[in-house]
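Escalation from tier 1.

The customer reports that the assembly of two entities below gives different structure tokens on two consecutive runs. Tier 1 could not reproduce it. I'm attaching the input and our single run for tier 2 to review.
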Amino acid sequence: MSAPASKINPVLLAVLCVVSIAAITLTFFITPDSLSVNLVYQAF
Amino acid sequence: MFPAVWSNRHAVALILVIGMLLTLPVMMHVAGFPPRDRVYSGIRVETGTGPLDEHNIFEEKGPVDILLVGSSLLVRGVDTDYLEHQLSQQLGRPAKVRRLALKWQGLDMQYMLMKDFLEHHKTGIVIMNMPTGALLGDAPHIQAYRWMRWGEFPASTAGLSFRHRVGIYGAQVLGAPRQIVNYIRPNRLVQSPELVHDLGSQSQYGSVGYYGSTFIPEPRTPPVFAVDSMISHGSDDANFDFNGEALGPYHQHWAREIGNLANQYNVPFAMIHIPEDTEKGMTHVPERMYWPSVLGLPDAPVIGIPSETLFRETPATEVQNYYYDQHFNDNGKEFFTRAITPAVLDVYNKEVRRN
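Tier 1 run:
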């Protein structure tokens, strides 16, 4: 079975890329231990 | 293989979800935060003394004579009940000594606790334990996502670099989904005063031996030290070494803000050094920097005893019995508190009178 062809609006795709990159970039600025504390203590 | 995004509607949904998560701190600020008096009870009890902090700041009323602010080193280092008793005797009236602390070090955390407290209480003196070498990195406190809310104290973050502001915003993004639950159901307060006290003193470590070894009770009456020898006299005081690893710009910023806060509220300020296990044998009190200069409070004294002096009558092999790791167990807490209290009372007397 062939994959369905993508018919996404390129503007939407670009916006999605921007917010995704922003989110990923932000994680580099978060104190790493804050993330591990969240996991260790199931704080959220 | 299906594409990651299979329709325009799907793309819009993803953009909205990620966009909302990224902007939630700002949206909450615009909508109005839930009351600040529940921010510390959002911290899980395993990770700190939040319930006691919240009780001391928001629930209990009235002036306080001595406010201690710091990290877990302070919690396990100073017996506030003993100090309060001694101060009451000195003043001839019931004195009030309170402590605010969270696990892990960070001057941003200590600033926030101090600010919240001074907004609600008249305070005789603030005594703070400053970061030691255990504070690694130069980023927001591990628990910052609990109590730093976007736009709440804008003046305090105004001097930070863009990188550090993004770091704070990242913490706020991390904490916002949990904070938003407060709109629906506010954090519950711990109802049992005994439990609040136990959590606040981290009493579970009181009778723990060094790194899990058997706890050995030790004498808790220290030698008597000259009060003057426990208080710093300038940056070249022989009992103190202020030339440790300098703090990074982020924490130096908060040190300055703490100094500004003390000036703003016109409250006397002093610092106290809690000896860690690694200081065994040291003949001076190791400090990372000359704090009075960093804080902009040139007359603020630093109180401390070199480890070698504190344990001068304790056999070297028994010093570790006063610790459970880098922190004091109850042997060390009572021993150190009894040793340092005369200096704390002396500083209180001088600073409050001068003020």
